[in-house]
Design goal:
Layout lengths: L1 E5 L4 H12 L3 E6 L12 E5 L5 H7 L5 E4 L14 H16 L3 E5 L10 H9 L1 H15 L4 E6 L2 E3 L7 E4 L8 E3 H13 L6 E6 L1
Parallel strand pairs: 1-2, 1-4, 2-3, 4-5, 5-6, 6-10, 7-9
Antiparallel strand pairs: 8-10
Helix pairs in contact: 1-6, 2-3, 3-5
This protein binds NADP nicotinamide-adenine-dinucleotide phosphate (NAP).
Length: 205
């Protein structure tokens, strides 16, 4: 498949590129800082662009089978008001509509599940700004007629495994963390196997 990856040089995005190439997909990494991607591979094309710019994206998107987005804002900016993911969601769905690309997998966060108790309350509070941005991005995606999947992981950790459990509309039981690589594996499985189309999936290790 021809896959268009946003956030391709981030921690989840790097794993997505790596796994997608290992699975013999053709990968387009659309990034604002191409110099950060040092990997070279005949099936990897690195394009410079702004994921908030619908025109830039629409120009290079035709011919792809799916868009996978692992964009996000890093701390400390993540704790201040920000709109990156929602702005990119709007430009992405706009560009996809223009380009005739229907399949979208978007990384969100488990903090958007309505969990009860002190543990959830604490993270909901700490991640207020992230929650707002991702929540708005989810709304933008859900309002389209695209074949979207929203994936909500809990805390992301840097381990080499790609094992995940997934469930519709809920975080798998006792799911407190998951590796960046396992989220990437889920995203690719969702595209390859047409899983969770127009659904929200909770994932955890
Ligand atoms: N970390 C966790 O525990 C956790 C848990 C649940 C969900 N999540 C969510 O998972 C997603 C991926 O997380 P991650 O840790 O893999 O992300 P990350 O490593 O911080 O990567 C973020 C990506 O977004 C890009 N980006 C940031 N600001 C940009 C801008 N203004 N214009 C263009 N690109 C920009 C970065 O590119 P540059 O390198 O050019 O900045 C990078 O490719 C995020 O939405 C995060 O909220 C994270």
């Amino acid at each position: 498949m021809r896959l268009f990856i946003l956030g391709a040089n981030g921690k989840t995005g790097t794993q997505l590129v790596d796994l997608a190439l290992a699975r013999n997909h053709q990968v387009t990494a659309f990034v604002r800082s191409p110099e950060k991607i040092t990997r070279r591979h005949p099936n990897l094309q690195v394009l410079h662009g702004d994921p908030r710019n619908v025109h830039e994206m629409a120009r290079v998107l035709p011919g792809h089978d799916a868009v996978l987005s692992a964009l996000g804002v890093r701390p400390p900016q993540a704790f201040r008001p920000h709109t990156l993911v929602q702005e990119c969601a709007a430009s992405t769905v706009g560009a996809m509509t223009r380009a005739g690309v229907k399949r979208l997998v978007l990384v969100s966060a488990a903090v958007l599940f309505p969990g009860k108790g002190l543990f959830f309350d604490f993270f909901r509070f700490i991640l207020t700004q992230v929650r707002r941005d991702l929540g708005n991005a989810e709304e933008i995606v859900r309002a389209t007629s695209l074949e979207w999947t929203i994936v909500r992981p809990p805390r992301l950790i840097n381990t080499a495994d790609d094992i995940y459990r997934s469930e519709r509309d809920v975080l798998p039981a006792s799911g407190y963390s998951i590796s960046f690589r396992a989220v990437a594996a889920f995203m690719l499985d969702a595209v390859e196997q047409r899983m969770y189309v127009r659904e929200v999936a909770g994932v955890a290790s």
